[in-house]
Amino acid sequence: MTLRQLEVFLAVAQEKSFSRAAKKIHSSQPTLSEHVIELEGELGKVLFYRRGKEVTMTEAGRVFERYAASVVSSVEEARQAVSELDGLAHGSLLIGASTTPGLYVMPGIVAAFRTRYPGVDLKLQIANSQVIEQRVGERELDLGIVGGHSVSPGQECLAAGMLDELVLIVPPRHQWARRRDIAPEALADEPLLMREAGSATRSVTERALQRAGVKFRVTMELDHTEAIKQGVMAGLGVAFASVYAVRGETTTGRLRALRLRGVRIQRHFHVLHHESRRVTASARAFMELLEHTAHGRKDARRLKKKTSTTSKG
Fold first, then answer.
1. DSSP 63-81
2. How many angstroms separate the CA atoms of 294 and 11, rounded?
3. Contact in structure between 245 and 229 (CB atoms under 8 Å)
4. Does residue 313 belong to any structural domain of this protein?
5. Is the residue at 284 inside a domain?
6. What pLDDT is stored for residue 207 in this prediction?
7. Which of 51, 86, 121 is where one domain is finished?
8. In this structure, is residue 107 part of a structural domain?
9. Among 15, 34, 132, 133, which residue's beta carbon has the most beta carbons within 10 A?
10. Lowest-pLDDT range, 81-90, 211-220, 256-265?
11. Bigger pLDDT: 33 or 295?
């Protein structure tokens, strides 16, 4: 039994397809099939049911998966531990981030990390919160950054980083465009654009509105924040979006941001980690940079608020 066979087995198990697994690990489908056949021969058990192009795990496959994942994870951690003997001159780090922090917060932090630690191979994957949490649970990621979540079995929340606020965005010619806030009951009469199920932005928004007793009607579901913004600019409806996501559009006047009176929709971006994985030195360094960035933005907000108060006085 070889490490490569275990990696192939896990790729097929996760992708539920030999062809997709081959693309994922940059190999050929016949090579993957050969590895799995050899592994099944050594174990004396069939690990996959093959039905056309799709495959599903047998009972033996499901039992074996947990041990295979543990072995592969341990080997990767051993490599990381050895590489850390040189400090952070070498190493690798795989970060997953949900859409909002992934698109609008992480790029700057990733750039700063690469400048500070050029020897560490840092990769960033972006998907909605549900997918990122799933990948953390499957031990695919070193860290996952998501907004507004509940910790699942096997996961740890290592830090609650930057504070985010979801604001109501409208096009510049909308009747609310010149207002700072609106009465919550007014939202019921407006078409609301919403992210897809599995999005933290959606779940946080829905929970906050329901807790406040605010009525709303979702008229369109879109699976990307950029699509939401374009839809609002086109006049399809209003939407709730992160202040980080709409900073450019509100600065240039393409969108207006306001709040529901008496309702603040806030969340933290949380750092998730699988409890059975070792927190590597590179992961700790990334969290320190994330925390430093979060504190820097808090200080900037305090200074802005203080300056505004002083100027009014």
1. HHHHHHHHHHHHHHHHHHH
2. 36
3. yes
4. no
5. no
6. 93
7. 86
8. no
9. 132
10. 81-90
11. 33
Domain count, the chain: 2
pLDDT of residue 149: 59
Placement of tokens 């509105």 in the chain: 209
Residue 137 lies in a domain: no
Residue 276 CA, chain-centre distance (Å), reads 20
Find the largest Cα–Cα distance for the chain: 81
- Which residue among 86, 106, 137 closes a domain? 86
Dig out the tokens for 303 from the structure.
């200074």
Check which CATH number belongs to the domain holding 71 and give it.
1.10.10.10
The residue range of the domain holding 210 is 162-268
Contacts with 74 (C-beta within 8 Å, 6 or more apart), sequence order: none
Helix residue ranges, H only, the chain: 3-15, 18-24, 29-43, 59-83, 99-104, 106-116, 129-137, 200-211, 225-233, 247-252, 281-312
For residue range 276-292, list pLDDT tens digits in order: 777 888 888 998 888 88
Q: What is the dihedral of CA 30, 36, 40, 46, to 10 degrees?
A: -90
Tell me, what CATH number does 215's domain have?
3.40.190.10
Confidence bin at 307 (pLDDT 50/70/90): very low
